[in-house]
Amino acid sequence: MTIRERIETMEAETLSPYAALSVHTKGRERDEEPCDIRPVFQRDRDRILHCKAFRRLKNKTQVFLTPKGDHYRTRMSHTLEVSQNARTIAKALRLNEDLVEAIALGHDLGHTPFGHAGEYVLNSLCAEGFRHNEQSVRIVEKLEKNGAGLNLTWEVKDGILNHQTRTMPHTLEGKIVRFSDKIAYINHDIDDAIRAQIMVTEDIPKELRKTLGETTKERLDRMIHNIITFSIETDDIRMSKEVEEAMQELRRFMFTHVYQNPVAKSEEEKARGLLKQLYEHYLCHMELIPAKYAHMLEDGESEERVVCDYISGMTDQYAIMRFEEYFLPQAWQVDGY
After folding, report:
1. What is the pLDDT of residues 13-72, one digit of tens each?
2. Helices (H), 50-171
3. From the centroid of its chain, how far is CA 170?
4. Which of 315, 190, 299 is nearest to 247 (CA)?
5. How far apart are the first and last CA of the chain?
6. Integer Cα distance of 9 and 47 in angstroms
7. DSSP state, 332?
8. Given this model, what pLDDT does residue 2 score?
Protein backbone atom coordinates (compact mmCIF):
# COMPACT_ATOMS: atom_id res chain seq x y z
CA MET A 1 0.00 0.00 0.00
CA THR A 2 1.39 3.42 -0.99
CA ILE A 3 1.47 6.43 1.31
CA ARG A 4 -1.30 7.99 -0.78
CA GLU A 5 -3.50 4.93 -0.33
CA ARG A 6 -2.93 4.99 3.44
CA ILE A 7 -3.97 8.67 3.53
CA GLU A 8 -7.06 7.88 1.46
CA THR A 9 -7.94 5.10 3.91
CA MET A 10 -7.52 7.54 6.82
CA GLU A 11 -9.87 9.98 5.08
CA ALA A 12 -12.56 7.32 4.74
CA GLU A 13 -12.18 6.32 8.39
CA THR A 14 -11.96 9.75 10.02
CA LEU A 15 -13.71 12.35 7.88
CA SER A 16 -17.40 13.23 8.07
CA PRO A 17 -19.80 11.21 5.90
CA TYR A 18 -20.52 14.52 4.17
CA ALA A 19 -16.87 15.15 3.23
CA ALA A 20 -15.59 15.00 -0.35
CA LEU A 21 -13.21 12.05 -0.27
CA SER A 22 -10.19 12.08 -2.55
CA VAL A 23 -11.01 8.64 -3.93
CA HIS A 24 -14.47 9.83 -4.96
CA THR A 25 -13.29 12.74 -7.10
CA LYS A 26 -15.01 13.27 -10.42
CA GLY A 27 -11.51 13.39 -11.84
CA ARG A 28 -9.48 15.54 -14.21
CA GLU A 29 -10.00 16.43 -17.85
CA ARG A 30 -6.83 14.48 -18.67
CA ASP A 31 -6.14 11.22 -16.89
CA GLU A 32 -2.87 11.02 -14.97
CA GLU A 33 -0.92 8.42 -13.08
CA PRO A 34 -1.73 8.81 -9.35
CA CYS A 35 0.97 10.20 -7.09
CA ASP A 36 2.37 7.62 -4.69
CA ILE A 37 2.40 10.15 -1.82
CA ARG A 38 -0.34 12.76 -2.31
CA PRO A 39 -4.10 12.33 -2.79
CA VAL A 40 -5.61 14.31 -5.66
CA PHE A 41 -6.71 17.42 -3.75
CA GLN A 42 -3.36 17.78 -2.02
CA ARG A 43 -1.71 17.50 -5.42
CA ASP A 44 -4.00 20.26 -6.74
CA ARG A 45 -3.12 22.47 -3.80
CA ASP A 46 0.58 22.08 -4.57
CA ARG A 47 0.06 22.86 -8.25
CA ILE A 48 -1.75 26.09 -7.42
CA LEU A 49 0.83 27.12 -4.83
CA HIS A 50 3.67 26.73 -7.34
CA CYS A 51 2.00 28.36 -10.35
CA LYS A 52 2.97 31.77 -11.68
CA ALA A 53 -0.50 33.28 -11.29
CA PHE A 54 -0.37 32.57 -7.56
CA ARG A 55 2.98 34.32 -7.14
CA ARG A 56 1.66 37.43 -8.91
CA LEU A 57 -1.04 37.88 -6.27
CA LYS A 58 1.52 39.42 -3.91
CA ASN A 59 1.62 42.55 -6.10
CA LYS A 60 -2.08 42.90 -6.85
CA THR A 61 -4.36 45.33 -5.02
CA GLN A 62 -6.93 44.13 -2.53
CA VAL A 63 -8.79 47.40 -1.75
CA PHE A 64 -6.30 50.25 -1.38
CA LEU A 65 -4.44 51.09 -4.60
CA THR A 66 -0.67 51.63 -4.20
CA PRO A 67 -0.90 52.26 -0.43
CA LYS A 68 2.01 53.87 1.37
CA GLY A 69 2.65 51.26 4.03
CA ASP A 70 3.83 47.69 4.41
CA HIS A 71 0.85 46.30 6.30
CA TYR A 72 -2.08 46.79 3.93
CA ARG A 73 -3.47 43.60 2.48
CA THR A 74 -2.69 42.47 -1.04
CA ARG A 75 -4.55 39.86 -3.02
CA MET A 76 -1.97 37.35 -1.76
CA SER A 77 -2.45 38.08 1.95
CA HIS A 78 -6.23 38.03 1.44
CA THR A 79 -5.92 34.59 -0.15
CA LEU A 80 -3.87 33.27 2.76
CA GLU A 81 -6.38 34.60 5.30
CA VAL A 82 -9.23 32.93 3.39
CA SER A 83 -7.28 29.69 3.40
CA GLN A 84 -6.62 29.84 7.14
CA ASN A 85 -10.25 30.57 8.01
CA ALA A 86 -11.44 27.80 5.71
CA ARG A 87 -8.98 25.22 7.08
CA THR A 88 -10.04 25.98 10.65
CA ILE A 89 -13.69 25.39 9.80
CA ALA A 90 -12.99 22.28 7.71
CA LYS A 91 -10.88 20.66 10.42
CA ALA A 92 -13.56 21.27 13.06
CA LEU A 93 -16.28 19.81 10.81
CA ARG A 94 -14.09 16.85 9.73
CA LEU A 95 -14.31 17.86 6.09
CA ASN A 96 -11.53 17.57 3.51
CA GLU A 97 -8.92 20.14 4.48
CA ASP A 98 -6.82 19.55 1.35
CA LEU A 99 -9.79 20.33 -0.92
CA VAL A 100 -10.66 23.44 1.09
CA GLU A 101 -7.09 24.71 0.91
CA ALA A 102 -6.79 24.09 -2.83
CA ILE A 103 -10.01 26.01 -3.53
CA ALA A 104 -9.01 28.86 -1.21
CA LEU A 105 -5.54 29.26 -2.72
CA GLY A 106 -6.95 29.25 -6.25
CA HIS A 107 -10.13 31.28 -5.83
CA ASP A 108 -8.65 34.69 -6.79
CA LEU A 109 -6.01 33.70 -9.36
CA GLY A 110 -7.97 35.51 -12.06
CA HIS A 111 -8.15 38.87 -10.32
CA THR A 112 -6.98 41.88 -12.30
CA PRO A 113 -4.49 44.56 -11.30
CA PHE A 114 -6.05 47.37 -9.22
CA GLY A 115 -8.64 45.16 -7.54
CA HIS A 116 -12.27 45.17 -8.58
CA ALA A 117 -11.71 48.43 -10.47
CA GLY A 118 -9.73 46.46 -13.03
CA GLU A 119 -12.40 43.78 -13.21
CA TYR A 120 -15.12 46.37 -13.90
CA VAL A 121 -13.04 47.95 -16.68
CA LEU A 122 -12.39 44.70 -18.53
CA ASN A 123 -15.99 43.60 -18.09
CA SER A 124 -17.21 46.88 -19.59
CA LEU A 125 -14.77 46.80 -22.53
CA CYS A 126 -14.83 43.14 -23.55
CA ALA A 127 -17.95 42.11 -25.47
CA GLU A 128 -17.60 38.61 -23.99
CA GLY A 129 -17.54 40.01 -20.45
CA PHE A 130 -15.01 39.44 -17.71
CA ARG A 131 -15.46 37.96 -14.23
CA HIS A 132 -12.51 37.12 -12.02
CA ASN A 133 -13.92 33.79 -10.83
CA GLU A 134 -14.35 32.60 -14.42
CA GLN A 135 -10.87 33.90 -15.25
CA SER A 136 -9.46 31.93 -12.30
CA VAL A 137 -10.82 28.73 -13.85
CA ARG A 138 -9.53 29.79 -17.27
CA ILE A 139 -6.05 30.22 -15.79
CA VAL A 140 -5.93 26.74 -14.30
CA GLU A 141 -7.48 25.15 -17.39
CA LYS A 142 -5.81 26.97 -20.28
CA LEU A 143 -3.28 29.65 -19.40
CA GLU A 144 -0.84 28.21 -16.89
CA LYS A 145 2.13 26.14 -18.06
CA ASN A 146 2.14 27.78 -21.51
CA GLY A 147 -1.39 26.70 -22.35
CA ALA A 148 -1.35 23.22 -20.84
CA GLY A 149 -3.14 24.33 -17.67
CA LEU A 150 -2.84 22.66 -14.27
CA ASN A 151 -5.33 19.86 -15.00
CA LEU A 152 -7.06 20.21 -11.64
CA THR A 153 -9.88 18.05 -10.34
CA TRP A 154 -13.51 18.91 -10.97
CA GLU A 155 -14.16 19.64 -7.28
CA VAL A 156 -11.41 22.24 -7.00
CA LYS A 157 -12.50 24.04 -10.18
CA ASP A 158 -16.12 23.97 -9.04
CA GLY A 159 -15.19 25.62 -5.74
CA ILE A 160 -13.09 28.27 -7.49
CA LEU A 161 -15.84 29.08 -10.00
CA ASN A 162 -18.62 29.29 -7.40
CA HIS A 163 -16.98 31.14 -4.52
CA GLN A 164 -18.97 34.31 -5.13
CA THR A 165 -22.34 35.23 -3.61
CA ARG A 166 -24.48 34.67 -6.70
CA THR A 167 -23.52 30.99 -7.19
CA MET A 168 -23.19 27.94 -4.96
CA PRO A 169 -20.48 25.24 -4.97
CA HIS A 170 -21.44 21.58 -5.09
CA THR A 171 -19.26 20.47 -2.17
CA LEU A 172 -19.37 21.47 1.49
CA GLU A 173 -15.68 22.30 1.17
CA GLY A 174 -16.48 24.80 -1.56
CA LYS A 175 -19.23 26.31 0.59
CA ILE A 176 -16.73 26.78 3.42
CA VAL A 177 -14.44 28.80 1.14
CA ARG A 178 -17.42 30.85 -0.06
CA PHE A 179 -18.16 31.90 3.53
CA SER A 180 -14.48 32.25 4.44
CA ASP A 181 -13.88 34.67 1.58
CA LYS A 182 -16.52 37.07 2.92
CA ILE A 183 -15.37 36.68 6.52
CA ALA A 184 -11.79 37.44 5.52
CA TYR A 185 -12.35 40.49 3.34
CA ILE A 186 -14.93 42.14 5.59
CA ASN A 187 -12.64 41.92 8.61
CA HIS A 188 -9.29 42.69 7.03
CA ASP A 189 -10.81 45.56 5.05
CA ILE A 190 -12.06 47.07 8.32
CA ASP A 191 -8.56 46.71 9.73
CA ASP A 192 -7.00 48.35 6.66
CA ALA A 193 -9.59 51.15 6.65
CA ILE A 194 -8.84 51.94 10.29
CA ARG A 195 -5.11 51.92 9.48
CA ALA A 196 -5.79 54.33 6.61
CA GLN A 197 -7.72 56.58 9.03
CA ILE A 198 -10.87 56.65 6.94
CA MET A 199 -12.93 55.11 9.74
CA VAL A 200 -12.76 54.08 13.40
CA THR A 201 -14.30 51.07 15.08
CA GLU A 202 -17.02 53.25 16.62
CA ASP A 203 -18.30 54.08 13.11
CA ILE A 204 -19.61 50.52 12.85
CA PRO A 205 -23.24 50.50 14.04
CA LYS A 206 -23.52 49.57 17.71
CA GLU A 207 -25.92 46.68 17.10
CA LEU A 208 -23.48 45.08 14.65
CA ARG A 209 -20.63 45.41 17.12
CA LYS A 210 -22.83 43.89 19.81
CA THR A 211 -23.69 40.89 17.62
CA LEU A 212 -20.34 40.31 15.91
CA GLY A 213 -17.75 41.81 18.26
CA GLU A 214 -15.76 44.99 18.77
CA THR A 215 -12.41 43.84 17.35
CA THR A 216 -11.19 41.85 14.36
CA LYS A 217 -10.27 38.99 16.69
CA GLU A 218 -13.73 38.95 18.29
CA ARG A 219 -15.54 39.11 14.94
CA LEU A 220 -13.47 36.31 13.40
CA ASP A 221 -13.99 34.17 16.49
CA ARG A 222 -17.75 34.81 16.51
CA MET A 223 -18.29 34.14 12.80
CA ILE A 224 -16.12 31.02 12.57
CA HIS A 225 -17.53 29.51 15.75
CA ASN A 226 -21.04 30.25 14.53
CA ILE A 227 -20.50 28.40 11.25
CA ILE A 228 -19.04 25.41 13.05
CA THR A 229 -21.85 25.31 15.62
CA PHE A 230 -24.64 25.48 13.06
CA SER A 231 -23.02 23.19 10.46
CA ILE A 232 -21.60 20.35 12.54
CA GLU A 233 -22.97 16.92 11.66
CA THR A 234 -25.19 18.37 8.91
CA ASP A 235 -25.03 18.27 5.12
CA ASP A 236 -24.79 22.04 4.75
CA ILE A 237 -22.57 24.98 5.70
CA ARG A 238 -24.51 27.78 7.33
CA MET A 239 -24.63 30.50 9.98
CA SER A 240 -27.36 31.35 12.42
CA LYS A 241 -29.89 33.80 10.98
CA GLU A 242 -28.83 36.53 13.45
CA VAL A 243 -25.11 36.32 12.69
CA GLU A 244 -25.52 35.97 8.91
CA GLU A 245 -27.85 38.96 8.75
CA ALA A 246 -25.39 40.97 10.84
CA MET A 247 -22.52 39.95 8.56
CA GLN A 248 -24.48 41.00 5.47
CA GLU A 249 -25.35 44.32 7.11
CA LEU A 250 -21.69 44.87 7.98
CA ARG A 251 -20.81 44.11 4.35
CA ARG A 252 -23.31 46.77 3.19
CA PHE A 253 -21.81 49.20 5.70
CA MET A 254 -18.36 48.55 4.22
CA PHE A 255 -19.58 49.26 0.69
CA THR A 256 -20.95 52.62 1.77
CA HIS A 257 -18.13 53.71 4.06
CA VAL A 258 -15.03 52.05 2.56
CA TYR A 259 -15.44 50.48 -0.88
CA GLN A 260 -17.13 53.61 -2.23
CA ASN A 261 -15.21 56.04 -0.01
CA PRO A 262 -13.59 58.82 -2.11
CA VAL A 263 -10.39 58.64 -0.04
CA ALA A 264 -10.01 54.89 -0.45
CA LYS A 265 -10.86 55.16 -4.14
CA SER A 266 -8.93 58.35 -4.89
CA GLU A 267 -6.65 56.65 -7.42
CA GLU A 268 -9.25 54.34 -8.92
CA GLU A 269 -10.27 56.60 -11.80
CA LYS A 270 -6.63 56.81 -12.89
CA ALA A 271 -6.36 53.02 -12.76
CA ARG A 272 -9.50 52.63 -14.86
CA GLY A 273 -8.17 55.03 -17.48
CA LEU A 274 -4.80 53.29 -17.51
CA LEU A 275 -6.30 49.84 -18.12
CA LYS A 276 -8.71 51.18 -20.75
CA GLN A 277 -5.81 52.67 -22.72
CA LEU A 278 -3.78 49.47 -22.41
CA TYR A 279 -6.75 47.40 -23.60
CA GLU A 280 -7.32 49.58 -26.66
CA HIS A 281 -3.59 49.75 -27.41
CA TYR A 282 -3.14 45.99 -27.37
CA LEU A 283 -6.18 45.45 -29.60
CA CYS A 284 -4.50 47.69 -32.17
CA HIS A 285 -1.08 46.10 -31.64
CA MET A 286 -1.62 42.41 -31.12
CA GLU A 287 2.04 41.83 -31.98
CA LEU A 288 2.86 43.14 -28.48
CA ILE A 289 1.01 40.25 -26.81
CA PRO A 290 3.47 37.57 -25.57
CA ALA A 291 3.43 34.30 -27.46
CA LYS A 292 2.17 32.34 -24.44
CA TYR A 293 -1.09 34.31 -24.71
CA ALA A 294 -1.17 34.96 -28.47
CA HIS A 295 -1.18 31.25 -29.28
CA MET A 296 -4.77 31.17 -28.03
CA LEU A 297 -5.75 32.98 -31.24
CA GLU A 298 -4.83 29.84 -33.16
CA ASP A 299 -7.28 27.91 -30.99
CA GLY A 300 -10.13 30.20 -32.04
CA GLU A 301 -10.08 32.62 -29.12
CA SER A 302 -11.01 36.23 -29.90
CA GLU A 303 -8.49 39.06 -29.76
CA GLU A 304 -10.57 40.67 -27.01
CA ARG A 305 -10.34 37.56 -24.83
CA VAL A 306 -6.60 37.22 -25.36
CA VAL A 307 -6.04 40.88 -24.45
CA CYS A 308 -8.10 40.33 -21.29
CA ASP A 309 -5.96 37.30 -20.47
CA TYR A 310 -2.78 39.33 -20.74
CA ILE A 311 -3.95 42.44 -18.89
CA SER A 312 -5.73 40.58 -16.10
CA GLY A 313 -2.55 38.64 -15.41
CA MET A 314 -0.53 41.81 -14.82
CA THR A 315 0.45 43.04 -11.38
CA ASP A 316 -0.30 46.65 -10.52
CA GLN A 317 3.30 47.74 -11.06
CA TYR A 318 3.69 45.83 -14.32
CA ALA A 319 0.57 47.50 -15.73
CA ILE A 320 1.93 50.91 -14.72
CA MET A 321 5.29 50.09 -16.31
CA ARG A 322 3.69 49.07 -19.61
CA PHE A 323 1.53 52.22 -19.58
CA GLU A 324 4.59 54.42 -19.03
CA GLU A 325 6.40 52.64 -21.86
CA TYR A 326 3.59 53.16 -24.36
CA PHE A 327 2.15 56.53 -23.38
CA LEU A 328 4.76 58.60 -21.53
CA PRO A 329 7.85 60.23 -23.05
CA GLN A 330 10.97 58.18 -22.38
CA ALA A 331 14.31 59.65 -21.34
CA TRP A 332 16.99 59.46 -24.04
CA GLN A 333 20.69 60.12 -24.25
CA VAL A 334 23.00 61.25 -27.05
CA ASP A 335 26.33 59.37 -27.20
CA GLY A 336 29.20 61.45 -25.81
CA TYR A 337 26.97 63.90 -23.91
Report:
1. 999 999 999 999 999 999 999 999 999 999 999 999 999 999 999 999 887 666 666 778
2. 52-56, 75-93, 97-106, 115-125, 132-138, 154-161
3. 18
4. 190
5. 73
6. 23
7. -
8. 97
